[in-house]
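Notes from hallway chat w/ T.B., transcribed later so I don't forget. T.B. wanted the structure written out for a chain they're using in a teaching module, and asked if we could keep both sequence and C-alpha cells in one place. Agreed to drop them here.
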Amino acid sequence: MSKHPRMLRGTLTAALAAAALLATQGGAHADDAAPRIIGGGDATETYSFMTAIDMLRDNGEYRFRCGGSLVDERWILTAAHCVADRDTGEVLDASLFTARVGSNDRTAGGSTAGVTEVVVHPDYLADHEQMIGDLALLRLAEPITDQPTAVLAEDVPEVGSHLRMIGWGYQSNGATTLPTRLQQLDSLVSPAEDCVVNGPWDIGEGDFCTSTETESGYCGGDSGSPALQWVNDRWEVVGVVSRGVGDDCATEPDVLPAVASHQDWIATTLAG
C-alpha cells in the first residue's frame, strides 16, 4: 500500500474534479472507494453496522467508495478522505453518496439510504504536514431502524491486543477488482513507533497502529471501514481505516484514528 489514504481507483467527472478526491493507488485508499483486506477470508458472521458507501459517477452509476459503520439510526462513521479532498479539505456534495447497511454483500441486501449531510472532523488537514483526524460522519436521509448500531469503544486499544479487520478492499497488490463479499482478518495492535517513517502519513495524535505482519493487512478499498475488538461478548468499533505507511499493501503497518480519542466530537455531531 502507498503512503496515502486507502481509497479505490476511479474516475470523477470534470465538474466534480475540484471537489473530488485525488486518485491514489494501494494502501487503504479510495480514489473511488477504500482498500481491501489482504490475507484474510470471507466474513464468518454478519456485522449489522457494517456499511458500504457508494458514490455517483460521471456515467450516472453508483460505484463503491468506502466502508463505514452505522453508529446511530441516522449517522454513518467513515474516513474523512472518503468524502473530502485530501489536499484542500473541500467536502463533496452529500447527495452523491448512498449507504447500504448490514449486508456482507456490498451490492445487495441490508438496508439502504441516501445521505443529506457530510460532517468532517475539524482536525482533518488542519496540519498540512500530517494527516490527523481522518474521520467523517454522514447524516442519512432516513433512519435505519432494522439494523443494530455499532458500539463505539471508550478506550484506545492496547498494544498487543487482538484486532479484527473487515472491509471490501483489494485482496492483493496490483488488483483491479474489489471483492463483493465482505472480508475479515484477525490481527494485533502494534506499538506507535512501528507507524513512524518520517512522512506525512505517520501516526499522529489520536491514532493507533496495526500489526506489521507481512502479507496481511488493509489495502485500497478498505478506507472508512471499522476495526473491531471483542469486548463484553460484543464487537466494539475501536478505529476507522485511514492510511498505510508503506509503499505497498500488507508490507507495512496501517494507521487508524481511535474512536475513543474522538468520542466528544462524535457525540456532539450526533446530537446536532
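Follow-up for T.B.: The radius of gyration is 16 Å. Might be a good example for the class.
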